[in-house]
Amino acid sequence: MTSFHDLGLSSALCEAVKNKKWQEPSAVQQKAIPSVLEGRDVMAIAQTGSGKTGAFLLPILQRLTQEKGKSGFPLALILAPTRELALQIFENVEFFGNSVSKSGALLIGGVSPVHQMKALQSKPDILVATPGRLLDHIRQQNLSLDSIKYLVLDEADRMLDMGFWPDIKKILSHCSQKRQSLLFSATLSDDIHLLSQSLLRKPLLIEINANRDAASVNQTFFQVPTSEKALFLRDLIVDNGLEQVLVFTREKASAAKLAAHLKKDGFTVDALHGDKTQAQRIRILEAFKNHSLRVLVATDLASRGLDIKALPVVINYELPADPHDYIHRIGRTGRAGSAGLAYSLVGEKDFYRFQAIGSLLKKRPDLETPEKFKAYFETLQSREQKQRESDDQKSFKKSVRDRKSKACRPPRKDFKKNSPDRDNKSSIQKDSFEYLMPDF
């Protein structure tokens, strides 16, 4: 059995790992840590909850201890897409950094920049930041990134989804070219490939249980009318005796509305979304972790960066717009090899989202229709079938009319096959390589 010591980590870090109660290195840690220690650029693709933070943080801390002298400037920069994930990473920086006398600073929105400026004045070794707040400090000349030797992009796919690429480009322009770069992502897409080409030098690709791995989570899909979802959710929680439930919605308004509905039903519940301040988010998360809240209703803001040990169940009240977010949502349960449970409610207009999830999982999950809703969906399907038949009949009649009209039309004269207009149109290659490739 491989141990953290076998991977080349120092005794001080191994002792800290033991105190953290990490029993043995995860698969991504086993492959990434030795490569990072060797100084290689790494692109690691692994599912949420697979131990990616330890995979980049532990070897970076060890390399920092080998640096000669103290530069007085930060040597490592870790970028995260959300405040919650950045905060989680920073907590690990503080915990493991203490064991090797290395310090960190957290730069995120939603908190006073004055306190962050004081943290920067203490000359931290590691910066953990979200892109927007980091750029604010750069513009105000509160810090320099010239000395950065280790750069990490965590949840890089999420950063691209959230439109952070322009900010990332600006940040990279301030960093030294002589650096070791690490890119961690839950998905491997064309955009991630392109990002890696611009960021990494001769990288090692590590792929562990990529984005389709949900084997540790028992997934159940219920077909439920949208108007009945709130009541069905209540009964689902009560009938199954669920005591700690993370519920996902797509929008802030629906999260707030659902939380208010559940509160009227007697649940201890709160909503977590983008309109909450950072202080409110931290308070809500802590209340959920210590079981002061039975139900937490969250948008996809919380689908990454939430670290809740042994979370038993996740419920998708609304299916996500992006099927990849489904993987990240259910990744909050079934972590570290433990079994998890995920329920999803599929409404009348959600079937295409349900199909997209099935395509991503490379199998179509079973869709259960509770007995009391069967008549509703059978009637709905019958109505839709009749509408399709009507549409098909109209389309057929139109095609017949078009063919008759074309047959009666006199032939066109003086048609120039090689006319200048025709040549110009054919020369426009809309699907050319340059068009498809984003300008990185």
From TrEMBL:
<feature type="region of interest" description="Disordered">
    <location>
        <begin position="382"/>
        <end position="440"/>
    </location>
</feature>
<dbReference type="InterPro" id="IPR014014">
    <property type="entry name" value="RNA_helicase_DEAD_Q_motif"/>
</dbReference>
<dbReference type="InterPro" id="IPR044742">
    <property type="entry name" value="DEAD/DEAH_RhlB"/>
</dbReference>
<dbReference type="Pfam" id="PF00271">
    <property type="entry name" value="Helicase_C"/>
</dbReference>
<feature type="compositionally biased region" description="Basic and acidic residues">
    <location>
        <begin position="411"/>
        <end position="425"/>
    </location>
</feature>
<feature type="domain" description="DEAD-box RNA helicase Q">
    <location>
        <begin position="2"/>
        <end position="30"/>
    </location>
</feature>
<dbReference type="GO" id="GO:0004386">
    <property type="term" value="F:helicase activity"/>
</dbReference>
<dbReference type="InterPro" id="IPR001650">
    <property type="entry name" value="Helicase_C-like"/>
</dbReference>
<keyword id="KW-0347">Helicase</keyword>
<feature type="compositionally biased region" description="Basic residues">
    <location>
        <begin position="396"/>
        <end position="410"/>
    </location>
</feature>
<keyword id="KW-0378">Hydrolase</keyword>
<keyword id="KW-0067">ATP-binding</keyword>
<dbReference type="InterPro" id="IPR011545">
    <property type="entry name" value="DEAD/DEAH_box_helicase_dom"/>
</dbReference>
<feature type="compositionally biased region" description="Basic and acidic residues">
    <location>
        <begin position="382"/>
        <end position="395"/>
    </location>
</feature>
<dbReference type="InterPro" id="IPR027417">
    <property type="entry name" value="P-loop_NTPase"/>
</dbReference>
<comment type="similarity">
    <text>Belongs to the DEAD box helicase family.</text>
</comment>
<feature type="short sequence motif" description="Q motif">
    <location>
        <begin position="2"/>
        <end position="30"/>
    </location>
</feature>
<keyword id="KW-0547">Nucleotide-binding</keyword>
<dbReference type="InterPro" id="IPR000629">
    <property type="entry name" value="RNA-helicase_DEAD-box_CS"/>
</dbReference>
<protein>
    <submittedName>
        <fullName>DEAD/DEAH box helicase</fullName>
    </submittedName>
</protein>
<dbReference type="InterPro" id="IPR050079">
    <property type="entry name" value="DEAD_box_RNA_helicase"/>
</dbReference>
<dbReference type="InterPro" id="IPR014001">
    <property type="entry name" value="Helicase_ATP-bd"/>
</dbReference>
<dbReference type="Pfam" id="PF00270">
    <property type="entry name" value="DEAD"/>
</dbReference>
<feature type="domain" description="Helicase C-terminal">
    <location>
        <begin position="232"/>
        <end position="377"/>
    </location>
</feature>
<feature type="domain" description="Helicase ATP-binding">
    <location>
        <begin position="33"/>
        <end position="206"/>
    </location>
</feature>
